[in-house]
Please model this.
Amino acid sequence: MSITIAEEVLLLAYRDDTGKPQIGSTELDAALAGAIVAELAVNGRIDLDGKKLVVRDASPLGDDELDAALARMAGESRDHKPEWWVGKLNGNKLRKRLLSRLADQGVLTEQETKVLGLFPSRRYPALDASVEQGIRQRVESVLAGAEPDERLAALVAVLNAAKLDRKAFPHARKERIKEIAEGEWAGAAVKKTIASVHAAVAAGVAAAVAAGAASSGG
Model:
């Protein structure tokens, strides 16, 4: 089964038992958007020109979400910074589409519930745990010292930026996560792009935390 980096982030973010995410929805949505941008970079479709993302190859990858994002980028009249695209692509609609896709593939199961018996809510517990287990095994291997490929290291970088890394892998060493996220494993062009995506996701998460603190303080 072939799944995207964004779907891998989702599987690691959602608890198998409760079917609920381990981080806030705003942080998760920023991570998913960053994962889409990162995967386009790893596949050679986009890279950085100065501080802005540019499309180098607009040919489809064969995935609806990746191809839609790439088409949006190619259709823009001017180039934008990674944080602009992370903000543009994120949102609960992306998350819901990816969750529904994983449910359609039999990886998750979608369950309708009601909070306090009144308010509708959805849970997404695991149905085929082997998919997430495979992701975990690959990530744990590189966290233990194996050499990551560009795609796997991009996943770790997004997890780190969203502060999901230590929740999904509580025993991972911070130093190893940082080493992978900084991208010494990648070619120069991909390294710069992934670093910019990492910064964009981290900025989105920080903004969400600040907004939440201001709201609770008010």
Q: What stands out?
A: The mean pLDDT is 89. The chain is about 60% helix and 10% strand. The radius of gyration is 17 Å. The beta strands are 46-49, 52-55, 111-115, 119-123.
